[in-house]
Amino acid sequence: MENKSEIILGIETSCDETAVSIVKGGTEVLSNVVASQIESHKRFGGVVPEIASRHHVEEMTVILEEALRKAEVTMDDIDAIAVTEGPGLVGALLIGVNTAKALAFAHQKPLIGTHHIAGHIYANQLVSELKYPLLSLVVSGGHTELVYMESEGEFTLIGETRDDAAGEAYDKVARTLKLPYPGGPHIDRLAQEGTESVPLPRAWLEKGSYDFSFSGLKSAVINTVHNAKQRNEEIKPEDLAASFQAAVVDVLVTKTKRAAEEYDVKQVLLAGGVAANKGLRTALKEAFKDSEIELIIPPLHYCTDNAAMIAAAGTISYRKGKRSSLHLNANPGLELGI
Ligand code: KG4
Ligand code: ZN
Question: Is 195 in the same domain as 88?
Fold first, then answer.
């Protein structure tokens, strides 16, 4: 008999957020504590793996205690511990994995290794009931993927980036415009103030392909800035941001809509850090406003890295009977699955 009120403790340390969350029944978030390290990485213009690991070590016990306190539970109430096993920075992942193993061993609780992207996708379950088949557009700092799901826990990759991830392109373009790290939110803000006036390419790739490519677009932005400088011309950063964002959003939305129709899905989910992008959220809503397909867009705090999403995905694994051993290791190349 399925226990619909299992309490899962989730741990996420794959990149620069130390996060612990406690989720009941796969949907009810009892606590969701996230400590961001962005301030420490900003001056380096990106995440420094060694610094990330050190911060995870320093923060982990504090965040864990805070998550238990806020949820008003003790370790005795926890049914299982879900932890991000991969993909991510190996040193960063290891802090979460070792914390989870220590807790599982000390408190004799089941351990569940969880895929970071499965977490991003299942963040949607925290706000809506999921109906299969569905399509998820995953856009983060490391991933840009279209994932088809025939049923719960079943992932089929139908398209992915061949070079840069969408978030990576945002961050690199932001760096060219001398904006602070992470650049995505800054470009997004500037884009709202500018007009789409700089012609930039869109990589549609071969007919019918659901793959993406953003490196050509990124290079085009860098070249445009460079050429303008040499000619002593001024391009408004707002206009460049608006033009870049329009090119990214155009390809993401067009391919998502086409795939959703071809695969005849009931829902389209948006997932990952770039899901916080205002331009993308607005364009997706517009694209699906007259469609039978239901569009689900999580609130911002479930788009960027958090542990509630890991607990949500971990709940699915728990119900399917998945248990990891105490030999669980961090796996930066982990394949998408439950
Ligand atoms: O999912 P996430 O928090 O971490 C990874 O798993 O990669 O995604 C981080 C990425 C960064 O590249 C960041 O610039 C981007 O998400 N991002 C945005 C926005 N907010 C975060 N990109 C565009 N517009 C935003 N509003
Ligand atoms: Zn992420």
Answer: no
Q: What is the DSSP-derived secondary structure letter of residue 188?
A: H
Mean pLDDT of 55-80: 97
Judge if 220 and 252 occupy the same domain: yes
Close Cβ partners of 304 (under 8 Å, ≥ 6 residues apart): 17, 273, 276
Q: CATH code at 43?
A: 3.30.420.40
Instruction: Kindly list the distances between the CA atom of residue 331 and the CA atoms of 31, 85, 112, 146, in Å, as whole numbers in the listed order.
Output: 27, 6, 13, 22
Give the pLDDT confidence of 89-128 residue by residue, as tens digits.
Answer: 999 999 999 999 999 999 999 999 999 999 999 999 999 9
When computed from its CA atoms, the radius of gyration of the chain, rounded to whole angstroms, is 20
Distance 273 CA to ligand 1 centre (A): 4
Q: Are residues 309 and 285 in the same domain?
A: no
Residue identifier of the C-alpha nearest atom 22 of ligand 1: 184
Instruction: Say whether both 118 and 186 belong to one domain.
Output: no
pLDDT at 2: 52
Shared-domain flag, residues 154 and 286: yes
Q: What is the dihedral of CA 208, 213, 216, 222, to 10 degrees?
A: 140
Domain count, the chain: 2
Predicted confidence at residue 3, as pLDDT, reads 57
For ligand 2, the distance from its centroid to the CA atom of residue 140, given in whole angstroms, is 6
Q: Note the pTM of the prediction, 2 decimals.
A: 0.95
Of ligand 1's listed atoms, the one at least distance from the Cα of 168 is 12
Which residues span the domain enclosing 54?
A: 7-122+303-319
Atom number in ligand 1 closest to CA 88:
6
pLDDT digits (tens, 9 = 90+) for 276-319: 999 999 999 999 999 999 999 999 999 999 999 999 999 999 99
